[in-house]
Amino acid sequence: MSALEILDPSAERDPEGRPLAGRPPEGKTIALMDIRKPRGDVFLDELERLLTARGYAVERTMKPTFTKPAPADVRKEIAARCDAVIEALAD
Amino acid sequence: MAAELLVLVKHDCEVCDQVLPVLADAAAAGAPLRILSQSSPEETAEQARRVGLRAVPDIDVDLEVSARFDPEAVPTVLLLDGGEERGRVEGLQRERLAKLAGRAGAELALDGLPELRPGCASLTRDPAVAATLAARRARAEGRLRARALEVGALEDVFDALHDRGLTDGLPVVPPTPERVVAMLEHTGRGPQEVVGAVPPYGADATVEKVAINAVMAGCPGETLPIVLAAVEAACVESFAWHGLIATTYPAGPTVIVSGPLAAEVGMNAEGNALGQGNRATLSTGRALQLVGWNVGGGRPGVEDRATHGQMGKLGSCFAERLDETAPWAGLAQDRGVAGAETGVTLVATEGPRVIVDQLAREPEGLCASLALALESVAHPKQRLAFDALLVVGPEHGRVFREAGWDRARVQERLFELTTSPAGELTHGAGGSPEGIDPKFVSDPAMPVAKFAAPDRILLAYAGGDAGLFSMVYGSWAAGEIGSAPVTVSVEPWR
Questions:
Q1: Which of A14, B226, B269, B355 could form a Cys-Cys staple with B321, CB 3.0–4.6 A?
Q2: What homologous superfamily is domain B3-125 in, according to CATH?
Q3: What is the predicted ipTM?
Q4: What gap in Å lies between CA B257 and CA A13, rounded to an integer?
Q5: At what angle are helices B177-184 and B207-217 packed, to 10 degrees?
Q6: Cβ <8 Å between A3 and B153
Q7: pLDDT, tens digit, for every residue of B386-419?
Q8: How far apart are CA B261 and CA B268, in angstroms?
Q9: What are the chain A neighbours of B209 within 8 Å (beta carbons)?
Q10: CA-to-CA distance for B412 and B407, rounded, in angstroms?
């Protein structure tokens, strides 16, 4: 038996490995993104309370619908104004 | 450059056996003549010994020379001048052979050989070899660009493909270059054309990549245009395939094929239309899912966060039954595909479920039954967020056809009948916390529709002759906030 050649069905991309970012120091701005799932606001309200108590500034943001990726403008806005982002994956 | 003769032979050919000693003698005597064998070195050496040659002919490695001149038969004697062909004789044709040799200044001792004897099929015409050569040509010409992967001789190919994460959990057909090139014959589109950007990672699905995954899914070649159309439709932004892959909901793309091509490629739209046993439908649905899996990169437990999933996520495809029993034209045709063409409609659905009504013989009563069952899509209290795909069975379809109810009328009536008083739908009504926030309800008698519009109840027609059943697929989050059905014609992909 000899070796068999097959064609790669994948996208042939090698994702770049990235280390986890360090925890931002106090005073930095954290974006809290509501993905528009029911009760996501409850989760984010609590996170905002905890983050504010620890000295972080918080910016609330949301995407138009949970079913689709956040639009580029929303992502750009967060990148421009904030140092880190937390998404609320509620339900 | 001077003219020379190039001879192609193979070991298991009696005519080659007859001619070889004459040709070898001429070469030994200084004639500008080179013999190349299509066979292996061992076979060629054995033949040389058998016919009494003093030197073993060279080997046409990988049949490169044979593929270039592509003779039908061997022996073939080619007259070349500066590498360009100036003439050839295939098989044993004494007179023509002598003349051809003469043009190269060579004399062949052909006396004693038969005047005329057809040769044997060139190895390049062996179907398996021809497929390999076609694949090599496709690679050389840039039609095949996918990375080649090697499965070792000691590996089981099915295990190897699975272990490399390239399958959906079931065995796949190994996508050899030969199979992929044969698959690509079934579309007029170029292999490097982009069909769509596949989520979640947005990689381009080229026709070649779709063909590779179609081979793996087990597609008959004739279905490739349908698979390509399905991939095109799935990549349309309003279909929201990204979210469909990522969602916790047990939904995936269902492909509905409407039009004459369905039967031509062997799709079954009758008994067991949504079930097992039909290669064309099963493999088409699976090919789309494998494109999502391999090109898009969405994997269960990683990008795909489905709570339960469902078997239709292996592949979900059926064909509409558009024969004389059909109560209306096909779904794709209703959504804009020309009547003579075949269209595919993609709907983000959960698994199908039966609706039984064995007593209704007139459309009003049948609609009432269907509406009752449609209320339960997702949850009776879930309103406006989900669509339904209703696959009307032939015995139910006959009721509508004989009463002259067209698609729009059935949709309109089902829409009206799936309206409930708000008071029955609020949080806590019937003891269930699910439902509408009472702050949005000023009047408990206010009618609340189940579906956002009549045409959000999609109607298809399929199934066997017997059985007073229809089937319903609930959709994933529908419309603007989720996935909208997408219909495209298969025609551009043929």
A1: B269
A2: Glutaredoxin (3.40.30.10)
A3: 0.87
A4: 32
A5: 110
A6: yes
A7: 999 999 999 999 999 999 999 999 999 999 999 9
A8: 11
A9: 9, 11
A10: 9
Contact B239, B348 (CB under 8 A): yes
For residue range B219-276, what is the model confidence (pLDDT) as tens digits?
Answer: 999 999 999 999 999 999 999 999 999 999 999 999 999 999 999 999 999 999 999 9
Contact call for B482 and A11, based on CB within 8 A:
no
Contact B296 A13 (CB under 8 A): no
Q: B442 vs chain A: nearest CA distance in angstroms? A: 22
Min Cα separation A66/chain B (Å): 8
The CA–CA distances, whole Å, from B196 to B175, B202, B207, B268 equal 21, 9, 9, 28
H-assigned helices in B316-391? 331-334, 363-374
CA distance B64 to B136: 10
Put simply, whether the predicted model's pTM sits higher than 0.95 gets the answer: no
Q: Please give, rounded to a whole number of angstroms, the shortest distance from the CA of A78 to a CA of chain B.
A: 21
CB pair distance less than 8 Å for B242 and A91: no
- Which of B145, B295, B382, B384 to probe the A interface (max A CBs under 10 A)? B295
Tell me, yes or no, if A72 comes closer than 8 A to chain B by beta carbon.
no
**Domain locations in chain B?**
3-125, 157-493
Mean pLDDT, rounded, for B36-54:
96
Residue of B nearest to A90 (CA): B248
Contact B101, B108 (CB under 8 A): yes
Residue type, B137: R
Element containing residue A46 per DSSP (H, E) = helix A40-53
